[in-house]
Amino acid sequence: MIKQLRYFVAAADFRSFRRAAQSVNLDQSTFGRHIRDLEYRLGVDLFERDRKGATLTPAGVEMLAKARRLVADADAMIAYGATLRTGNVGRLMLGFMTTISGGRLRDAFFEFNRATAGVELEGREASRDELFHELERGAVDFAIVTGQIEQEPFHRMPLWRERVLVAMPEEHGLAAKPAVTWEDLQQQLIIQTKIDPGPELCDMLIARLSEPGRRPQVRMQSVSHETVLNGIPGGHFLTLGYEVELQAHYPGVCVREIHEAGVPVTVGYSGYWHPGNDSPILAKFVDFLRERTRGEFAEAAHCHV
User: Which long-range contacts (CB under 8 A, 24 or more apart) does 211-215 make?
Assistant: First the structure.
C-alpha cells in the first residue's frame, strides 16, 4: 500500500497521471490502475479526472497530508534499515576480563564509539569462563581476554600485547631497580586476587620459579585487584598485574616491568565472537579492530608469554 500512496502523492504533486507515471517509470494505464486500487481500498474517490488532468477531491485533499506522513515514515524506516545493515546504529555488547580504565582496550572502546555515534556500546566485565558462556548464549557479542588459544566454537583474532608489571611499596628494595626479573621475585611474598586475571598471573609466576622442593610465596585472596593495590603501602607484599591495570597512580606504590632475557615480558590479548552472530555492528567492530591492530603481533621486540 505504501507504493500506491507514493503514486497518490506523485499524482497530486504533478496534477497529471501522465507526468506522475513518467516520474516513477510506469506507463499511464498501470499507474492509473494503482490509483484506482488505492481508491477502492480506501473507499473514497481521491481524484476528479478530466481532459485537463487530475484534481484532488475534498476527500483526496484530506488524505494527502496523511499519505505524505506515511510515505515519509516509510522512507525513514527504509533508511534506518539500511543503517542497521551497515552497522551504523544498534547495540553492541563487549565483554572483557581486565579493567577498561586505560590502555588499548579503553582506546579501542572510545575510538569505535566516536566513529559510530549511532551504536550503543555496553560493557560486561567478567571472568574468562563467564564471558565464553555469555558468548555462547548471545548475551555478549565480542569478548576480549588474555591468551592466544583457539576456543571452540568461537572465531578468534589476535589483538595487542601488554606488559606484565609488578607493584610494590615505594620503599621496597626492588624499587631501586629500573626493572625486575623473575628471579628477583623468588623470595618475595606475592599476593594475587582470585578474580581474573589473578589466577593466570599466579600460574605464570609459579611456572617461572617453581623447581623441586622450592616454590614462590604466592597467596590468593578473594578480594578485588584494587583492594590488593591499596593494601601494598601498608604491607610487605608485591602483586603482579597487566599494564592496563597498573597505569593508574596509587599513593605509596611503585610499579616496575618484569624482564626476561633482557626484554619486557608481555601477554597477548585476543578477541572472540560466535560464528552464528550475524550482527552487522559486530562485523563492523571486528573490521575496526583488525585494521587498528594490523601489525601489532608482527613486532618481535618483546618476550612473549
Answer: none
